[in-house]
Amino acid sequence: xxxxxxxxxxxxxxxxxxxxxxxxxxxxxxxxxxxxxxxxxxxxxxxxxxxxxxxxxxxxxxxxxxxxxxxxxxxxxxxxxxxxxxxxxxxxxxxxxxxxxxxxxxxxxxxxxxxxxxxxxxxxxxxxxxxxxxxxxxxxxxxxxxxxxxxxxxxxxxxxxxxxxxxxxxxxxxxxxxxxxxxxxxxxxxxxxxxxxxxxxxxxxxxxx
Length: 209
What we know:
- The chain is α/β, with parallel strands linked by helices.
- The chain has helices spanning 11-24, 35-44, 64-72, 87-96, 108-119, 135-138, 140-145, 150-160, 165-172, 176-190, 195-206; strands at residues 3-7, 28-32, 50-53, 77-82, 100-103.
- It has 2 domains: 3-119, 3-Layer(aba) Sandwich (Rossmann fold); 139-206, Winged helix-like DNA-binding domain superfamily/Winged helix DNA-binding domain (Arc Repressor Mutant, subunit A, Orthogonal Bundle), CATH 1.10.10.
- It has a 5-stranded parallel β-sheet, sandwiched between helices.
């Protein structure tokens, strides 16, 4: 039996999707209502096969949640479920590692079809969506983020927020020298010379147009 997590702040939507997944697809379903509880749940149960991720729930910062989950839990598949339907947003979601993008307007039976495609190792997108063929060049920053380790990504997020090394060390409960090591590795992997440039690359990657 597959184990899935519905990460969405709308109780009615969670309940409807839960009924479909547990009933029609006989899955073991858990729920979370913000990004912090989503990460906590995944840390507590690393055997979660699939996450249904709402882009606009509390705690999300643009598309950063996709990148964070992919880096920290590489064996967990991600299906983005969102009211956002712009092709630029969908393209970025796929580039960041989402296996599917499901509009919230989609019929629940079609959602089942999408889930089955993902579990079979396939990608699923709405039929009327065409990914931008030039997106790989426009969003090269996304590929750079994929090189970072989970700790390096956490440091980069705080760098992008403008925190100093001492503040980052406090937030992550690590030494300042460890922060410096991570920061140095981040700059090298992103191919930049300073923290401002690193922060810009991060913001470009997660920004919803």
